[in-house]
Design brief:
Layout lengths: L3 E4 L2 E4 L4 E7 L8 E7 L6 E6 L6 E3 L7 E6 L4 E6 L8 E8 L2 H5 L8 E2 L3 E6 L1
Parallel strand pairs: 2-11
Antiparallel strand pairs: 1-3, 3-8, 4-5, 4-9, 5-6, 7-8, 9-10, 9-11
């Protein structure tokens, strides 16, 4: 069982930066691929970024490429999402997720992802 807790959300202005953190309870954290998803009001939850278990490979949705950066510190059981040049359209609840393979995160059915955090709100004002 893996418990995930997000933090770092908040209200910022367009162009600002935020860093989200996702702390995991599992001692086997290093064996999991991790990802960030977001859900804006009235929209479906979408994939934002993913990272392989060893941090060697990363994936991003096109809309955040060049602005967001995902990283994973296996020694601290923590994953991060550095968000720069934030835009109002980035406003959403951000969720972290863990899965045994990155495919489940990047291209799979979200219902196949076994572990989710509770979400943290990010609001970007114009």
């Amino acid at each position: 069982q893996v418990q995930l807790v997000e933090s770092g959300g908040g209200l910022v202005q367009a162009g600002d930066s935020l860093r989200l953190s996702c702390a995991a309870s599992a001692r086997t954290f290093s064996s999991y691929a991790m990802g960030w998803f977001r859900q804006a009001p009235g929209k479906e939850r979408e994939f934002v970024a993913g990272i392989a278990s060893n941090g060697g490979n990363t994936w991003y949705v096109d809309s955040v490429k060049g602005r967001f950066s995902i990283s994973k510190d296996n020694a601290k059981n923590t994953m991060y999402l550095q968000m720069n040049s934030l835009k109002p359209e980035d406003t959403a609840v951000y969720y972290c997720a863990a899965a045994q393979t990155p495919t489940r995160l990047v291209r799979g059915d979200q219902s196949s992802i076994p572990y989710w955090g509770q979400g943290t709100q990010v609001t970007v004002s114009s």
